Amino acid sequence: MLAGGVDSCKNIEVPFSATLKAASEKHEQRFNMSGYGAPKLDTVRIGFIGLGNRGPSSLKRLTLLEGVEIKAICDIRKERLILGESILEEAGLPPVKTYGDTEDAWKQMCERDDIDLIYQVTPWRLHTPVSLYAMEHGKHAASEMPAALTIEDCWKLVET
């Protein structure tokens, strides 16, 4: 929660004063992205998490990009994995590894050596934990807005 109101993850009231207090706390910045350029990847190998509401259309858009190889998809609902597999098949892409037997199956995907980017279309409360885990395992991480729900989580993302 970045402004006063209700924290959608915890469904509790968060006063604006708490946000101001968190914003004024000191944080040690260890790395600055200004001027940073990641090495060029001719092919970006993607692990895709979340085939719920907006996930299928996001997955379809990724199938249209040159230089993209979708390596794996993940959702905890089997029927959504089947939908994801059909989207890839309709795009003429080969079958991929699927994850979703447990709530933490996405972690196995992040641990793979043949994936460069974890692209997630998950509930907001998962954006920071999934992104952090992916980055801790050497992956680029992408999520729909917001990347974080609290200032503390913003700092966690910056420090990883």
- Percentage of residues in strands: 15-25%
> Residue-averaged pLDDT, rounded?
86
Strand elements, count: 7
Sheet bearing the most strands, described? 5 strands, parallel
What spatial form do the alpha-carbon principal axes imply? globular
Radius of gyration based on Cα positions? 17 Å
| Broad structural category | alpha/beta
Query: What percent of the residues sit in helical stretches (DSSP H or I)?
Result: 25-40%
Q: How many angstroms does the end-to-end distance come to?
A: 20 Å
The low-confidence runs, each spanning 5 or more residues with pLDDT under 50, are 1-9
Instruction: Give the strand line-up of the largest sheet.
Output: 5-4-3-6-7
Order of helices and strands: EEHEHEHEHEHEH
**Count of DSSP helices?**
6
